[in-house]
Amino acid sequence: MQRITRDQARKYAFDWRDEPLLRVRPGEAFEVETDDASTGYFQTPADKAIPANRPGFDRSPPTANPVAGPVYVEGAERGDALAVTIDEIVVDDYSWVAIGPRRGPLGESTRWPELSADYTTKIFRHTPGPSGTTRDGTVHFSDRISWPITPFVGTLGVCPDREVVTSIDGQGPWGGNLDVRDFASGNRILLTVYHPGALLYLGDVHASQGDTEFTGTAAETRATVRLRVEVVKKKRIPWVRIEKPGAVVSVYADRPLEVAVEAATVNLMDWLVTEYGFTPTDAYCLVSTCPDFRIHVYQMCKIAKLSYVAGAELPTRYLR
Known about the structure:
The chain is mainly β. The chain has helices at 113-117, 257-276, 280-289, and strands spanning 2-4, 13-14, 22-24, 30-34, 67-73, 81-91, 94-99, 120-127, 138-140, 146-148, 152-158, 165-166, 171-172, 175-177, 188-192, 200-206, 223-232, 241-244, 247-254, 294-299, 308-315.
């Protein structure tokens, strides 16, 4: 099986000029060893998020949030869609979260001065699950609090049309740093292709994340991701889409949040009309009345130029 190793997984932009690290056929499984969002800086509680101490933070934008790629997909052309199926994510034996002054929405808090006066790094231990791996293991937040590892790929996308975009805050219909918890094992992500070969990048795996990623950092970790890609010829989609085993999700990113929510919902309606035979009237009324229609706020953190990421989800049982 072809593989991108961790020492190769340290690109910091979606750049169509990069030489592909892999060339894969549609349906071929391959693996990517991802680095964490700090490129390995955070390993102990003593590693604080002080910009002057962090490698790459002397540049603008910082060289943080590394991604692996590009992966050239045989047969992918401009105007196609790339369908990325994530088969398995096995995370490292720990993850981290880092907060401090001028980081996130409470980085200048006067109500809780400890959040803005000092830097704090928490390291979370991971233990294996029934499989013997962290694929189904546990995150230990503290001696008292733990939860199942629920890993996903935080940054996933192809090269955008005409620009080179940083992996730390680049977002668009081509993907990017979206921190969508549904970029997870068993799901299929659809992206618009702009360049021959699609030129896929991925990285920034999280062991778990709460809705909105409120501090601007989740349970950041290294991982090994196994995935496959397919090419859907001559398929144009307005933005990123996700096909889950029991639901479809339309994703959109913008500011303010209500713009992202409305666009995700309208794009979901477009999906129902163009592919599932709904009339615009029925699609419009369905999203307003169906009790199983859901809005997800995947990412809403005040970091750099990041937009807020929303997803509009509908169970597939309503589409049959």
